[in-house]
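Feature request, filed as a ticket because there's no other form

It would be nice if the structure record came with a short human-readable summary line next to the tokens. Right now we just get the raw output. Example of a typical job, pasted below so the devs can see what we mean:
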Amino acid sequence: MPDYRDLHRLSALARGRITEISPAEARVMIAEGALLIDVRDDMELLRNPPLAGAIHMNRGRLEYLITDAVSSKDEVLVVYCAGGHRGALATASLLDIGYTRVFNVRGGLHGWRDDAGQVWVPSPLASGSNFGFAMSG
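Raw output as currently delivered:
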């Protein structure tokens, strides 16, 4: 089983200096024009498509891609990953490079869908992995 202690420590440090929002708050911000950014990797997108309207920028390439996609550092950005940890790191990174209005969705995609009352079940791609959840209901 993977040891995620370092990831949890880093995401906790990031959470100490970013703003996290609930999925409900994110939905309001998006309806008001915020850009939604999905930082999950490509394989995760194959298992669970991005949320409607999301811009995909893999966490590992975010800093390379963001300025071409979002030129205004004052644009409101709502970031999410699968569970919230990489979203927190991505949010901190965006703040570090000068974006001023960046928010992480608490709980990531899992939190978003749980908030909407949808149930997560393992998909066939998830056998023996920590990834690959599908919705039911």
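Something like this underneath would help us a lot:
The chain has one domain: 5-136.
The two ends are 30 Å apart (CA to CA).
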